Amino acid sequence: MPKSKRNKIVSLSKTKKKGKEHKESIVNSIREAAESYNSIYVFSFENMRNLKFKEFREQLKSSSRFFLGSNKVMQVALGRSASYEIRPGLYKVSKLLRGDSGLFLTNMPREEVESLFNKFEESDFARTGSIATEKVELLEGPLDQFTHEMEPFLRKQGMPVRLNKGVVELVSDFVVCEEGKSLSPESARILRLLGIKMATFRLNLICRWSPEDFELYMEGLDESDVECA
C-alpha cells in the first residue's frame, strides 16, 4: 500500500528549536485542515486592518478556516511540487502564495465565497507611506473644524497657521498631499484630523482548488504560470 503523502517528514532546518516547533505545528494544522475542507482558496490583501480581518474571520469560523503568515511555511504544508503535494493539484495552490497572501479553507459553496470576498471592503485612514488617492489642499483662511488648542500641534505638522481672535487661521494655501505620492507622517496625521479616509482594506481571490477542479481568478494568470512558477 503506498505511503500517504501527508505523512512525509518535512525538515525545517536552520531555525531555533522553538521556532522550528512552531512552524511544524502550523504545517500540521494546515495539512489537517486541507483534509477536512472541500475547497481551498488563495487570497491577497490590501491595506490589512487586523481588527476588521478578525471580525470577518469570526463571522466565518463555523464553516471555514483562515491561515496567514509565512508563505514558505504554507507552501511546505501544501506541497511545493507535485511530488510533495498532500492532495492532487494542491501544489498549484502552493505556487500562488506570494507577497501579501493567505489561505482560506471552507465548506461553503463557491458562489457564496465569491460574493463575500467581492463585497468585503472597509475604508480606513491611510498610514505613513501609503499612496495618496487624491490631492488635498486647504485654502487660506479660518479652519473652523479645529479648536484653538490644536494650533500648536498643527504648526508642528508643517501647517502655516496662527490664532486670530481665538480662531485657527491658515495664513496661506497648504497642500496636505499630492495624488499618487507617498504620505509623510505629518500628512497622514492631518488627513486623520480632517476625517479623510484614503485606505481601503480589500481581500482579492486568486485561485480556488477542489478535488474536482482548479480555477484562477486573477486576470493575466493562466495555468501555465502556475506550472512554471
From TrEMBL:
Keyword Nucleus attributed: yes
Main subcellular location of this protein, as a coarse class: cytoplasm
Pfam families noted in UniProt: Ribosomal_L10 (PF00466), RL10P_insert (PF17777)
Superkingdom: Eukaryota
Keyword terms: Cytoplasm, Nucleus, Ribosome biogenesis
Subcellular location, record wording: Cytoplasm; Nucleus, Nucleolus
Domain Large ribosomal subunit protein uL10-like insertion intervals: 126-196
Keyword Lyase: no
CDD domains assigned: Ribosomal_P0_like
Residue ranges that the Swiss-Prot or TrEMBL entry lists as coiled coil: none
Free-text function comment from the UniProt entry: Component of the ribosome assembly machinery. Nuclear paralog of the ribosomal protein P0, it binds pre-60S subunits at an early stage of assembly in the nucleolus, and is replaced by P0 in cytoplasmic pre-60S subunits and mature 80S ribosomes. Ribosomal protein P0 is the functional equivalent of E.coli protein L10.
Family listed: Belongs to the universal ribosomal protein uL10 family.
Binding partners and assembly: Associates with the pre-60S ribosomal particle.
Name of the protein in question: Ribosome assembly factor mrt4
